User: What shape does this take?
Amino acid sequence: MVNLFRTIERDMKKLELKLKEFLRIPVPLLSETGLYLLEAGGKRMRPIFALLAGRLFCGEENALFTVAVAIEVVHMASLAHDDIVDDSALRRGRPTLAARWGSEAAVVTGDYLLAQAMQLIYGLKNRALAAMLARTSTEMCRGEICQIQAAHDTGQSIYDYFYKIRRKTALLLSMSCEAGAVVAGAAGDEARALRQYGQCLGMAFQMVDDILDIEATKEELGKPVGSDVRQGVITLPMIIAMSGDGAEAARLRELLARKEKSAAETEEALALIRRSDGIPRSREAARRFVARACQKLPLLPNRPERAALERLAVMGLTRRH
Amino acid sequence: MVNLFRTIERDMKKLELKLKEFLRIPVPLLSETGLYLLEAGGKRMRPIFALLAGRLFCGEENALFTVAVAIEVVHMASLAHDDIVDDSALRRGRPTLAARWGSEAAVVTGDYLLAQAMQLIYGLKNRALAAMLARTSTEMCRGEICQIQAAHDTGQSIYDYFYKIRRKTALLLSMSCEAGAVVAGAAGDEARALRQYGQCLGMAFQMVDDILDIEATKEELGKPVGSDVRQGVITLPMIIAMSGDGAEAARLRELLARKEKSAAETEEALALIRRSDGIPRSREAARRFVARACQKLPLLPNRPERAALERLAVMGLTRRH
Assistant: This one.
């Protein structure tokens, strides 16, 4: 396990170099916006899972890193576009690309990065991977669209929420795990187990994100708390908190349905959610998804990477940012 | 030739049906925005060329229509995103998608359509086509980025202009011709000839567009004249008009460099360009590109489709919208 952590650390350094190299684009604006997205950091969660999944099957390193880079670049592209969609001014404590360079530049940067990721994946000459990327992109858009359409809609069910976060978050993490395994030559049932692991984990991760957006501090998040409430994105803790019969649930429904909320109203809504059982019950739901993810692991080779996948899954539940 | 025109007409009807079917998306907002883009019409220039190129080699109809639909969808996706980039309020006489549904919806619609086009192309299991699409998308983004960066830059050369329109317009038309040929099983040198034909023709088409934006009427264009001048997009007639030593060229340089222009200043700039030799010389340049396009045709099978490709090329020079 110690050796594995050393490998992961080395992999992460190599990944940063490869990403930087990849984003050395001979078009001034694009290299600036690309590097800006890169330097915003993030957890590089998706490539870590892709590399671990690939290493579990002793995959060839070059192809594995190509997949890892491509997936992180797809993620960066989606961030560039989501920030236009979300109209967010801050991400990870810094102005978003759209806020700094304008939506035009953010749109084209995202388009360019996605096209480049497609080219990377094609280069591997693996049809399954290319099809996976196209399918995942399509579904990610559907998730984003649902989020736009369902904004301020307090009638959403838990099912609607799951539909949305599965597409918005879980599928790309799922693809990361599956693609790492596929490029490393895993068998069909092993790749499927990793896909399911990644999907359950992605669901749990998004739930934790949605919880943190309500109960973390601004410092922990790197952006103001309550952005979901402000933007009318209805998340699981809110759905649960709104489901009661009492006056507080009714008041919360009223507040969340408003398209324009004052700062005081946002605070009031946050306080109502925090006082309800929305957060503990959402945590419990996330915990169940992590457990389901881990249930898939015994189908995989018993190697240190498998233990790492289990540990990362559990760690995701207690993170604060 | 008469039979061929009947075939083209039938193909166009079939294409409309296929596009409509393709855009019957089970996500309410997406099916609305998709159909809106579809109903905006347009000339369906790219699929016509793809179908003609494919029919020239007696290609199988299903695969050919898949390519034609995918390429038109890529074009629609780029329009959805360009309208955000261009900040245009009208396209083909109607509000743009971004103006009507907001940039968020326009971004996701474009992303979704592109992902769907990728899926269509993958379905053909032809690696050359998939790689072509990824490469073309990448270069189209570069063209768009150049346009953003070079806005209001009156120091641009004719070379800069060619670099930009090649990527913005010519490559997708070039891909249409090449992809139609490839999917129909054309030989390498025939596919190449069609790629070059499409590229020269695409250059000419964009030049004619840029000329019309200066000298057509609002009714012909379906949008206000002079949008390039207003948005600071420097086109060939402007570059030529600015290149003189006289006072009018100097005044034009001064006007075009301004980021904010009054309506009177826009009119003044348009009048200066119209009075210069920018338009006749740009027409001559477009004519030369059409001639170069047609020079590639003798390399292709001598069939009615080839004559149609020649006629379409020449007709492009005299269109008024």
Remarks:
- Chain B touches chain A at residues 27-30, 81, 84-85, 87, 103-105, 107-108, 110-112, 114-116, 118-119, 122, 125, 127, 130-131, 133-135, 137-138, 140-142, 144-146, 148-149 (CB under 8 Å).
- The first strand of chain B starts at residue 90 and ends at 91.
- Strands of chain B lie at 90-91, 94-95.
- Chain B has one domain: 2-318.
